[in-house]
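Bumping with the actual sequence this time:
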Amino acid sequence: MTRPSLLAREVVTVTATQQEDSDVVRTLRTLEDDRSSVRLRAALAAGTAPDPRFVGKLVERCGVEPDFFVRDMLTWALTRHPVSVTLPVLVREVRSEHARARSQALHTLSKVGDPRAWPAVTEALLSDPDDEVARSAWRAAAVLVPVGEEPALARSLVTQLGRGGRETQLSLSRALVALGEEAVPAVRAAATGADPLVRAHALATERLLRDPDTGFGHAIEEAKRVVALGPDAGDAHGG
C-alpha cells in the first residue's frame, strides 16, 4: 500500500503545482487586459496570493497603468511580496526614462518603507522636472530618511518651495512637516528669501509646522497676505 500512496501524493503535488502555474499565467495575462475592472481583479489576485513571478509584471504595469485605482492596487500587491524581491526592481525603476514609472516606483517605495531604499531617492528625483515624480520623491524621502539626515533633507526640500500649483505645494509642505523640528531652520531661512512665492510657501509651511491642524489653504493665503503687506504685517501676524 506504500507505493500507491506515495504515487498518489506525487500526483496530487504535481496537479497542485500545475494549477498554481496556470493561475500565475492567467493573472499575468489579465494584468494587461483592456478592461480596467479586469486588471484591478488581477492585481488583487497577485497581492492575495503573492508569487515572485508577479513582481516584474506588477512593476512594469505600475509604469504604464492609466487607471488610478488599478495603480493603487498594483502598489498594494507589491507590498505583499518579500522586500528582498521587490526592492531591487523598484530601485531600478526609479531611474526609468518614463515619468510615471519613476513616480509609481517612488510611491511604492514609500509604502514598502524599507530604509535600504533611501540612497535611491536622489537629489535629481527631489527636483525632478515632472511634478508627480517630485511629489512622490518628497513623500518617499520623508518616510525613508535615516535618523540624523533630516536637516540635510530639509535643506534640499526647501529649494523646491514656491514650485507648482496648490497640490504640489501642499505635498512639499507635508513632507517638510513630516520632518518636524528638524525642518524648522531650513524653512525659516527660506522665509527670508527674495522670491515672494518662495517666502509665502515657506511662511505657510512654518505655520503648519507650528500647528499641523491648520488648513493649508488658509495658511498659504495668510502667508501671501503677509508677504504682500511686508515685514510689519508679518510682525503683527506673529504677535
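The C-alpha cells above came from a reply further down the thread. The first helix runs from residue 2 to 30.
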